[in-house]
Protein: Phosphonate transport system ATP-binding protein
Organism: Nonomuraea polychroma
Amino acid sequence: MRIELADVTVRFGDQTVLEDIHLTVAAGERVALLGPSGAGKTTLLRVIVGAVPPVTGWIRVDGLDPFGSRSEVTALRRSIGCVRQRDDLVPGMTARTNILAAAAYQWRLIDWLTVLRGAVPRRYVRRLTELARRHEIEQLLPASVERLSGGQRQRVALVRALLTEPLLLLADEATSGLDPVRAAEVIEHLLQTEATVVATTHDLAVASCFERVVALRHGRVVFDGAVPEADDLSRIYGRALVAERVT
Ligand SMILES: Nc1ncnc2c1ncn2[C@@H]1O[C@H](COP(=O)(O)OP(=O)(O)OP(=O)(O)O)[C@@H](O)[C@H]1O
């Protein structure tokens, strides 16, 4: 999905959180949104999904307005998958049920009944099997999510986001709290999808896995291009922040 933002400014009360954002992401592109805490990364994702309205500017996702008519909003929400900062898997439920619940808004009664019996509705069987294999969570599906490690939970959250075949995948700090090896694995899995991907991160090592980096600072785009070298970043953020790997 192609994303276009022009002249987007967001304020919360007196605080300007995003200022004059101009950004175009081509269909199929993979973009890391890099920046220190409070830079406005999550807010930018929330603008794209229509959760936070800008005070100026406009947004189009595949030509649709996330703040437009009900049919536009419904079409967009069905085409967008999200992996959140702290995965919001439901405790007490298995990984399989958590993943299937993502498709709940598309369910018919027969699907609900199938899931209540502990099975996968027929129309999701093939896709769940394929995704579970690709993202190496087949063995984890029957496990209660509390028993999974952070990296396993993030892979379950990723499969949950992909089950509905999103054209746009938004990942908000999908690797936070993971060690560098597990973080790299999650990113590798994230980048296997054919969807357009926009992923926020504090971490330059994570950002460097992407073909394009958009860096935010104090709500403004301060870099947009191929993965910057550390020297470029030190100009952008100052040496102290780079030393902390933009945390
Ligand atoms: N709903 C809200 N109401 C008021 N202020 C908010 C709201 N959401 C975010 N903010 C503020 O906007 C600023 C940017 O927040 P945002 O979560 O977008 O930053 P971020 O770059 O994603 O940070 P982090 O990496 O820590 O998640 C912060 O100062 C935050 O406190």
In short: The mean pLDDT is 87. The chain has one domain: 3-243. The first helix runs from residue 41 to 48. The longest strand covers residues 15-25.
